[in-house]
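Hey L., structure's done. Input below.
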Amino acid sequence: MNILNIKSLSLILLVFSSTAYSQNGLSPCGVASAIWNAQYSSWSDGQGACTLPKPTDIGVAGLNTNYFSKLTGSGMCGACFNLTGPAGSTIVKVVDSCNSVDLCLQTQHAHFIVSPEDYFKINGENKATMYNVGYQLVTCPALDDFKVTLSGATDTNDFTYYFSATISGFTVPIKTVEVTVGGVYSSMKYQGGIWVWNKVNTGFTFPSTMRITTQTMQQILFSAQSGSRVLPNFNQTAIQDTCPMPVTPTYIYQNALAAGWVDGSWFAVESNLKDHTISSGANILKGLSPWGGVKLINAEQFSTVGLKYLVFDALSNISNAQVTIFFQGDHNSTVVLESETFASYNVSVKDLIVSTDDLVNSISFQNNQPTSIKLLLANIRWVYETNVTVPPGVVTIPVIKPSTSTTAGSTSGSAGATTTADITTASTTASMTTTTGDVEGSNPSGSSQEGSSSGHHLSPVALLWMVSMLLTSALM
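Output:
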């Protein structure tokens, strides 16, 4: 047996087994809602609004209509997101949009629909709708070929008047696709999951250069050709830091229970979650028996990290009513309420927890005396530590300006890279590129970069083939 081959095999197996998915952050941190749907467990190629192939080894997701269209070009189709919940995180690729229920139609925040398997990764066994999911647009793991397929007219495959480009496997969302017609770049239009070109003045002819620009202003230029072509993928460096689990939203109750919160009170003989005793807005009113309590339960666990105070407005029908506040267990804090008017109270979160990384899912206000009381609560909210930032509901890739230097444009009018081996990559942010590009160029450059290995990634299939060849050799 060849010892050298065994060592080579061991090295390849080590590389193969340690391959890690890329999670380079492209957007700021956001907070979203999420739900699961079993349909996304058995997703097939070409399904959904994006008609993309099913990705390898990561899940698929649908997005609410408003957020789905936040990016130009191909929108969020093919974009990957890192979702974070109390149970952990997962990466999913957007393949669909949703417009059938309120969370799909609202415009205040992103809403994700994922498979039960991905939902379990972020929320454990809890199947209730999540309203505090951390999300970040990230680079997709380069597990599939970055492929461009050009098709002419359906019956004739003629490209003169119309053709389409199907693009898949990209690691960063696509902003624009252009081809040269008569030596000048002409934009293609994204519709129905594909990029299309229609004749305006001049018919399309080969040779032609295609230029694909990502949402992060990376570019790749190559010779357009009929049929399919595999390209070196984008290797985008991080633009934003990786996002942690978001802090719990500010309000528990403001004129109504916040999304995800429900009433779980006990020994309550009178109940109104939208009473109007408070001078403005609504309040909770509970008639509590001795030792009864108002318990507000969240459908998902939330972290107490970053929470400094629990603040609320309260009123009781008796003087000096004692109300004990707690999350769970023996850690609590008792306040004495005034009886004539609503007043604001605050309780240190440190008094209610065992450790700073506690996960809890409820807050209780207990009548701590042997007589019945009426308890009124309003504007129940958190005050955060000074170093805490509450993420917004809608985030996108920051605006990236192109460099003043150029490799993608010239005034020569040349048709550019005319052989199938010619590929030029250009970017203002990517480590994989060898040139810095100006995306404003109107005509293609004749320069090219043959045989560039920048940004190439071995697919799992290729790695398995390499392993099998080395194994065969080692055993000979």
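Residues 1-20, 403-421, 427-476 have pLDDT under 50 and may be disordered. The first strand starts at residue 30 and ends at 36.

-- N.
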